[in-house]
């Protein structure tokens, strides 16, 4: 049996504005989906969902990936697939992409063909289409390559840098499942209504992302934190936030975070924060006291990879 793990992701800067052609930055984070594949009859089993009927809606992305591997790489089309994921579902952390990427990777490994990460990302994207219709492709790109990815108008550039070592990254899950399509539509409606003013806000959001790249390269944590807060304010202005997002931003900052913002579509989903290592524990504790699921996450700079089946991700 071959097993692969693939990381989830967060959006650090630029969500929503990216829809109108402005840049955004995503980061792969160390919460993983693990998929194991072995030859056999066709069976799909998820640790979270139990057995999945291959003809069901849930199985569509997996069947599409198996089909592509069979057509393009001559792999067989019957495998036993075991899926396990620690990434929150429906929170904007790229859980479906991580499963699809880990499946594509372990399938090609089991099949024994030569392949590149580009192949994995491309096949996983076909699975993503089954889940999301017309996704931007950032989730499967981040999950495949890991690290920081700058993207704009469908072009992805892996940044050759890393976040400063001395910061902790906190993810708080509001537990509110958002409807990404609806939030995106309503934000765009406000953008159109605002006219000149809307364009000015988006211009600033775009410049903020460029400034964030510089702050990351310089390892300037306080600048980075401040830019996160401003980014949250711009998202609030466009109607992408909700009471719970703003509350958790305050909660993190009041407990010593240097910056915090909603991440992804907003109106629920997740809030991310950065803090000095000395404050991280206190922030997570304060969030947990409020019954909020909060995690300390580490960046993942490796992306999808094989793992020994005896080692848990
Ligand atoms: O919540 P997520 O990670 O699915 O991100 C949505 C990001 C948006 O910018 C709001 C939409 C998009 O397609 O880029």
Key descriptive features of the protein:
43% helix, 12 strands, 25% strand, binds (3R)-3-hydroxy-3-methyl-5-(phosphonooxy)pentanoic acid, four-stranded antiparallel sheet, alpha+beta, eight-stranded mixed sheet, 313 residues, globular, single chain
Describe this entry's structure for a reader.
With 313 residues, the chain is an alpha+beta fold. Helix content is 43%, strand content 25%. The chain contains nine helices and twelve strands. Helix 2 packs across helix 4 and helix 5 packs across helix 6. The chain is globular and about 55 Å long.
Short description:
With 313 residues, the protein is an alpha+beta fold. Helix content is 43%, strand content 25%.
Regarding quaternary structure, what we see is single chain
The proportion of strand residues reads 25-35%
Query: Could you say which structural class the secondary elements and strand pairing correspond to?
Result: alpha+beta
Task: Tell me the span between the first and last alpha carbons.
Answer: 16 Å
Q: Give the biggest beta sheet.
A: 8 strands, mixed
Q: H/E order of the elements?
A: EEEEHEHHHEEEHHHHEEHEE
Approximately how much helix is present in the residues?
40-55%
Query: So what's the overall shape?
Result: globular
Q: Determine the mean pLDDT.
A: 96
Low-pLDDT windows of residues = none
- Give the strand tally: 12
The small molecules bound here are: (3R)-3-hydroxy-3-methyl-5-(phosphonooxy)pentanoic acid
Number of helices: 9
How big is the Rg? 19 Å
